[in-house]
Amino acid sequence: MTTIVPRLPLAVKDRLVRHLRLCRTPGLKTRYLVVLNLASGRSPQTTADVLAIDRATVYRVAARFRGHGEAGLDDRRHDNGPTKVDRAYREVLAKTVRASPQTYGWSRPTWTRELLVLALRRQTGVRIHVGTMSRALRSIAARRGRPRPTVGCPDGENPKRWRLYLIRRLLRTLPAEEVAVYADEVDIHLNPKIGWDWMAKGQQKHVRTPGKNRKRYLAGALDARSGELLWVSAASKDSWLFIRLLAKLWKRYPQAKVIHVIVDNYSIHSSALTKWAVGCGGGRIKLHPLPTYSPKHNKIERVWEDLHAKVTRNHTCRTMDRLMRRVYYYLYRRLRQLRRRCQAAAA
Fold it and tell me: What CA–CA distances, in Å, run from 42 to 3, 151, 189, 224, 278?
């Protein structure tokens, strides 16, 4: 064993242990552990197994320690010259990752580390290893994920921006005697939506489904000013469901001169029956349609996403009545929490 690492005096061991505890560099810490394990009588193979490294690394570290002492454990790559993955390289990498490979002339539609190495070499002239590319991607906080499918607005970008501008101006200049709400519908399925969940290694959880699906529908309105949520439910998703929501808004805001309802372009919001119901209000209810395919601009969509995450996704309810009780409990609890926050703010 002394041929690998010489017998170390107790003072030297204590100094190595002290430096190990102060070390914050993973590679240097591993080299300290190699020397201390060998000095404690462990074989090179046992040391490699304990530290999860290759046995050749153990012999290399031991040789450096025998030849140069503790100074031989330092990282000697600082003599290699300036780093290749500098700030300019990372900026180009961040811009490249945000785009598609086809934007840069490649036929493949998704990035791989090898393809990024080639693409960055074209742009910067710097060639790096695939493993270095992995570290570079971590340094810019890049991640692998599933893209979100989107659909372009068929009306064109300029009409879309203009309609969104009008809605934002309405909300920004809304008089105190008027009300604005975001309205939308959500489907509640007895067959649960399948979503992400934590699982143990080697396990794949099972979500038992009733088999034959049943549906219920909610129509909700989120107050743009207070955040209060109103809703109605029905067994069918038709114009009467939306009209019932408008009637509930009429009763909830009796003093409002105008109730502005921001909706999407679903057919029940512009049907002849809905237009008749709005006309019966004498101008007190006004509908403001969002641009086509603009769900992220309807704030009530976030409420429905939270509802799916906390109630309907991977649920285990066997009957629709039990599932709807959980849905109503979530909605009423959300309303109570909002009212408590308002009372605390007023106090």
Answer: 13, 63, 62, 69, 84
Whether residue 162 lies inside any domain: the answer is no
pLDDT, tens only, 207-264:
888 778 899 999 999 999 999 999 999 999 999 999 999 999 999 999 999 999 999 9
DSSP class per residue in 232-292: EEESS-SHHHHHHHHHHHHHH-TT-SEEEEEE-S-GGGSSHHHHHHHHHTTTSEEEEEPPT
Q: Residue 164: which of 302, 290, 262 has the closest Cα?
A: 290
* Structural tokens at position 244: 């019932």
**Domain encompassing residue 28:** 10-80
- For the chain, how many structural domains are there in total? 3
Helix (H) or strand (E) holding 189: strand 178-189
- Tell me: do 236 and 304 sit in the same domain: yes
| Tens-digit pLDDT profile for residues 38-81 | 888 888 899 889 888 898 989 988 888 888 888 888 876 666 66
Establish if 192 belongs to a structural domain. yes
Furthest CA-CA distance within the chain: 98
Other C-beta atoms closer than 10 Å to the C-beta of 64 total: 18
Alpha-carbon dihedral sign for residues 19, 20, 25, 31: positive
Alpha-carbon distance of 315 to 192, in angstroms, equals: 6
Give bridge partners of residue 313 from the DSSP assignment.
193
47 burial type by CB count under 10 A (0-12 exposed, 13-18 middle, 19+ buried)? buried
Is the distance from CB of 224 to CB of 180 less than 8 angstroms? yes
Helix (H/G/I), strand (E/B), else coil: 230 = strand
Specify if 224 maps to a domain: yes
- Identity of the amino acid at 63: A
Q: Which string of b and e fits 104-128 if b means at least 16 CB within 10 Å?
A: eeeeeeebeeebbbebbeeebeeeb
Q: Which phi and psi angles does 269 have, rounded to 5°?
A: -80, -15
